[in-house]
Amino acid sequence: MTVLVSQVNRLRKMKRPVVGVGCASTGDTSAALSAYCASAGIPSIVFLPANKISMAQLVQPIANGAFVLSIDTDFDGCMKLIREITSELPIYLANSLNSLRLEGQKTAAIEILQQFDWQVPDWVIVPGGNLGNIYAFYKGFKMCQELGLVDRIPRLVCAQAANANPLYLHYKSGWKDFKPMTASTTFASAIQIGDPVSIDRAVYALKKCNGIVEEASEEELMDAMAQADSTGMFICPHTGVALTALFKLRNQGVIAPTDRTVVVSTAHGLKFTQSKIDYHSKAIPDMACRFSNPPVEVKADFGAVMDVLKSYLGSKSLRS
Ligand SMILES: N[C@@H](CCOP(=O)(O)O)C(=O)O
């Protein structure tokens, strides 16, 4: 996002008619846009689907002084509106159909290679909603290959929530006609997108790298998130979707035990505390919440606390 906002800053200094920068968002793009615009002193305008993003996501553009429109539609409806509005008003569109976003996003691929000392991973798994990221990763890896920094590129996996899986269905149909859909509610709310703007670029990227598309049910993604958190991470539900893809592809033998695999994590878990609390309280209808860790309620009494602790420690020593 800083690449795009820096460019807008430059355009404004050249007296080009850009009054503000706008985006439709499921919560993360809007946070980044409003922060960088606030820093640069540029007005930001964000279109958000009403009641479909977390409180922690909503508060960021509000706090950063963006003009926030909470619109009674889903992300795809917001996206359609912002495209129409930005073609009428001098507002610069910041969603990932803008190639400046992709230029910034592709640096994640370069960082992966650099952090692996230019050893190419075998697989990179990326959660997919509006689908700018999956194309940007391909573009970054391809650029490094063309520059001679690496001699091959990884196979990419795009991971979608089963409730918002137009790319997955397209892949499973053998890349026949793409059918946009109305995405259903998913805990992976940032990828609750049925009509992704970068569909053509994503398909191109996946074909070029012999890529795969996987999907995760609500239970699978929440279980994966809880399992990851129990190792000391604190991931978002979208990363849970990507981890599910890893589990599935390992189980199918597609990804081998020795394959070096990167799972891309796209948001901080603290943005999604409500769904984590609901999971650990087993408060999600029709979900077993197999890895839940509910808090134990106990009286403020020494004996009562000793009892629950002894029982807890006993279960631990039995296991070890
Ligand atoms: N998940 C995104 C959706 C918009 O995607 P973009 O990459 O086109 O900005 C968000 O957080 O808003």
UniProtKB/TrEMBL annotation:
Q: Name one GO biological process term.
A: threonine biosynthetic process
**Which Gene3D superfamilies does this one have?**
3.40.50.1100
The cofactors required by this protein are: pyridoxal 5'-phosphate
An example GO CC term for this entry is: chloroplast
Give the CDD domains listed for this entry.
Thr-synth_1
Source domain of life:
Eukaryota
Q: In which pathway does it act?
A: Amino-acid biosynthesis; L-threonine biosynthesis; L-threonine from L-aspartate: step 5/5
Q: Where in the cell is it found?
A: Plastid, Chloroplast
Any one GO MF term held by the record is: threonine synthase activity
**UniProt key word Transit peptide:** yes
- State the reactions this protein catalyses: O-phospho-L-homoserine + H2O = L-threonine + phosphate
User: Domain Tryptophan synthase beta chain-like PALP: where?
Assistant: 7-266
**Keywords on record:** Allosteric enzyme, Amino-acid biosynthesis, Chloroplast, Lyase, Plastid, Pyridoxal phosphate, S-adenosyl-L-methionine, Threonine biosynthesis, Transit peptide
Q: What is its EC number?
A: 4.2.3.1
Which InterPro entries does the UniProt record give? Cys_Synth/Cystath_Beta-Synth, Thr_synthase-like, TrpB-like_PALP, TrpB-like_PALP_sf
Q: What does this protein do?
A: Catalyzes the gamma-elimination of phosphate from L-phosphohomoserine and the beta-addition of water to produce L-threonine.
Description of how the protein assembles with itself and partners: Homodimer.
| Family assignment from sequence similarity | Belongs to the threonine synthase family.
Q: Which PANTHER family match?
A: CYSTATHIONINE BETA-SYNTHASE
Protein name (record): threonine synthase
Q: Which organism is it from?
A: Microthlaspi erraticum
